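TASK: fixed-backbone design
INPUT:
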């Protein structure tokens, strides 16, 4: 029975990994919006974290993180490409480790919410909403912690007229962050709940 469960787990995880990679190859994972890339990849990461747990969320976050790090190394992303020239190690942490933490965090968040949610429905939409928000907080938080004083960031601070790091994050992310969060709630929450019901996991 355990072997059957392991095969099913690995099959489902492989399918979600494939979705993340296909989104990358088709350009859906990173849509350029100014110096940042708006990502919809948090949706499959959130779904995996909700249906399969924190470990699966972490693996999916890692896969997406490596595609993001590849963009930094290859120059596919202006911002992370610049960061890579400044510090490859910090850029790796930013692109990969932060995304692993997003996936793991989403998984634990869902587990906690699922226990206290009498509807067993709201928890899916809240996790779908919060996963891209968590990604924004960790990703941008690491940027302002490590790269805020760099010339690249300070130029954007000046152009945005940001008085402090928090205002910089708000002005830089802006509407993009809201779109990601809403997409996560609607698509991630809806698909996650539908699949969970179909697989009888609630």
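OUTPUT:
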């Amino acid at each position: 029975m355990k072997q059957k469960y392991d095969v099913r787990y690995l099959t489902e995880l492989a399918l979600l990994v494939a979705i993340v990679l296909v989104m990358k190859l088709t350009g859906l994972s990173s849509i350029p919006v100014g110096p940042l890339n708006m990502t919809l990849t948090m949706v499959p990461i959130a779904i995996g974290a909700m249906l399969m747990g924190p470990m699966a969320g972490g693996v999916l976050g890692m896969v997406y993180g490596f595609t993001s790090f590849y963009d930094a190394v290859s120059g596919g992303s202006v911002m992370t490409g610049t960061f890579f020239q400044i510090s490859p190690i910090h850029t790796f942490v930013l692109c990969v480790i932060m995304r692993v933490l997003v996936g793991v965090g989403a998984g634990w968040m869902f587990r906690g919410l699922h226990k206290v949610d009498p509807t067993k429905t709201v928890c899916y939409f809240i996790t779908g909403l919060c996963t891209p928000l968590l990604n924004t907080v960790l990703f941008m938080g690491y940027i302002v912690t490590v790269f805020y004083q760099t010339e690249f960031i300070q130029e954007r601070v000046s152009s945005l007229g940001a008085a402090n790091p928090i205002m910089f994050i708000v002005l830089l992310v802006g509407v993009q962050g809201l779109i990601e969060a809403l997409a996560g709630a609607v698509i991630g929450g809806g698909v996650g709940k539908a699949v969970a019901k179909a697989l009888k996991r609630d």
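COMMENT: The beta strands are 31-33, 36-38.
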